[in-house]
Amino acid sequence: MPTSSHEEARRLIQLTPPGRGAIATVRVEGPAAVEAVGRHFRAGNGRRLSTLPADRLVIGQFGGKDGEPGEEVVVRRCADGAVEVHCHGGRAAIGRIEELLAAIGFQTVPWRDWAADSCGDPFAAEALVGLADACTERTAAILLDQYHGALRRALDEIQEAAAGGRRGVARRQIDVLLGRAELGRHLVQPWRVVFGGPANVGKSTLINALLGYGRLIVHPAPGTTRDAVTALTAIDGWPVELCDTAGLRAEAAPRSDDPLGPVEAQGIRLAQQRLAEADLAVLVFDQSVAWSNNEERLWRQWPGAAVVHNKADLPPAPGPRPAGARVSALEGQGLSALLGLISSRLVPNPPPPGAGVPISEQQLQTIRDQGLGIRD
Question: Do residues 195 and 315 both lie within one domain?
């Protein structure tokens, strides 16, 4: 846990997000923190807060007056002189604590600002803030490594190698760190994986199968999906947003006299935009239908996309087609291999435990600056 670098500041920090059904933790720190909390806290055992041992949880009430009960809380007097108050997570309980302590000079500080101010290392502070937003165990483990100094140690090793005349080694280590930039950006923001392809090839069914539940509407009629619909999941421990799009066609746009023409055209434009913005585009084709000029043009339009041939439970159409994963969304065939393919395309070289990973543009600039300082 970070400790304050400004002992003279009287601060209240809500360390947990609000929630009516949750427990909130408010940290009170600064001069007379114990005295200030003790003024409004009545321990169930009748003892004064200042006489209780440090780091012991004490049940009691906070803020009651004129014989009325206060908020039920659990208080811990920390060894560093701060006090943690654990109370009901609704705004009323937290607001009452803040109100009473603000009256005697304590200021509410956003926890992100407190974390940045309390950590002696700015790299550790950024990792601490990122940990609050990590949504998988794998990304949290990487951020925890950075909080414990993994990136700082990597930069020290680079500096040591350069100072020892091993400049080639130092430059290679810098390249490794810069190569992890994309991973660092997605430790708290999911990768965007967009599924595209002709209409009625089973994109929505495939995404539902990968998710494990029916997030998307499926129908045998072509063109059921008109909008870009997203769902969050985790693949191999990486946070991923799967996006379903309208069926694509490489030929001319729908006829203007077709009632659904403008709607379909808008859906196609949105699908193309989502595919262009994706971290990974996945083109889905129907392997039971012969490969046509339309499929060929779509495949060539998105040369970096992962290719999936769906409906492997049906007899394959004769003729050649590009290599790709063969799956059956209905029968579940090939889904594990497809998930592995997506994971390897997103993170081809996962870092080993304890490795340095830059997680912000500022950290990347620090690495680049260090590289500029290494000369032949």
Answer: yes
